[in-house]
Amino acid sequence: MAEKQKMKFWSIVLLTINSIIGTGIFLSPGSVAKLSGSLAPWIYLCAAVFASVLAITFASAAKYVTKNGAAYAYSKAAFGENVGLYVGITRFVAASIAWGVMATGVVKTTLSIFGYDSNNTLYITIGFLVLMLILMVINLTGNGILTFVSDISTIGKLLALGITIIAGIVILLQTGHTNLSEINLLKDASGENLIPAMTVTGFVTAVISAFYAFTGFESIGSGASDMENPEKNLPRAIPLAIGIIAAIYFGIVLVSMFIDPKALITSKEVVVLASVFKSKIISNIIVYGALVSMFGINVAASFHTPRIFEAMAKEKQIPAYFDKRTSNGVPMRAFCITALLAIVIPMAFGYNMMGIMIISSISRFIQFIIVPLGVVLFFYGKNREEVLDAKKNFVTDVFFPLLSVVLTVFLLVKFNWVAQFSLKTESGDMVTNWYAISAMVIGYVVLPLVMFMFKKNEK
Questions:
Q1: Alpha carbon distance 424, 328 (integer Å)
Q2: Distance (Å, rounded) from C-alpha 172 to C-alpha 106?
Q3: HSE (CB half, 13 Å, CA atoms) of 131?
Q4: Which listed CATH number (3.40.50.1820, 1.20.1260.10, 2.170.130.10, 1.20.1740.10) goes with 9-458?
Q5: Domain ranges across the chain
Q6: Which of 28, 92, 333, 419 has a CA-to-CA distance to 208 between 20 and 30 Å?
Q7: Which of 2-16, 53-67, 160-174 has the lowest mean pLDDT?
Q8: pLDDT band at 425 (very low <50, low <70, confident <90, very high)
Q9: pTM for the whole thing?
């Protein structure tokens, strides 16, 4: 049988970009600007610095461990089976549900474009099933077609964002006027300033909100065995992709705030960036670019999320039934269980993203502590399992990982947890968000316990 085609360096870079640029930059600038005012572009740069430090750390882990599974594989190699299992199952569940949320975004946007009710549960469910069928067909064709679709969708979204930046610059040159200062003068219905005074907690909350638009890089190593020379290409591809994305985000947010910061904050549109531009042509480019972006990130998710589950099956921590591939090298059994989870959970919760997104976000922060500490163990040879004899570097293998841990702990300590687990009622009162708390308990306690019980029974 001929050797299956593997991803080369630039395809890995494009896959990384595709895995990161999804809905975040199209939907999040308004909330970030509302928290930070005219500082929003710089908040994105701060988030980019945090993401870059973590990206370098994850890239360092990838040169020691090239097994599929990313954070799961790194954690297991560094700390053993139990820690690996916990990181793996929480990451898998969060990634699957996040995939479901992103799929919901594609379906709702598509329904809206074609004039259908984007809140109709039946329409969303049908669209959901059709999308998953399309993604399954793309995966069944093998890495060649999947890579091609991923590359094209990535190029498409970059063109849409690039055109938006250029159009914004042209508008600014033609008018010779910027409206950036207006954002700090906006008032709410009661006459209070809409933009709060910047505090440490406010800054951290804004950075984490902006950081969500950078998440996804930590999953790239999930499919390392399907890449060409992953121990060399991953450490170069991931930081390069982060740098490209940071430049794009900074340009998009800065231009948008120069043109119409009020629209960025007050718009009720699904794709917030589209409301900044008065030109229907530019608005449509942004909307369709967002759709291409969301579809692209679904393609990326359909590639690396099942491989987390497959990696755990290879290590006998979950049923070996899921450690099977098709003749084209596709882990179809793992794909089906992942897709099922991605469909059922959003459907069960009425396609509400609130608590589900919290699990997705927080699960990444668990990795951002355990994986960096694991890289330090790799450097000093204190790991629990054998790793590759990679070229060691104190800066990337010790300094950056420890810096990652410090930054992650700082953000977790200073983050506004009370607000995160509260909901505002129609009367303006804040009540406990039991939905989000229940989701956290299921994702972090119940499911890991089930997996630990399975593992114990197997032994």
A1: 50
A2: 32
A3: 32
A4: 1.20.1740.10
A5: 9-458
A6: 92
A7: 2-16
A8: low
A9: 0.76
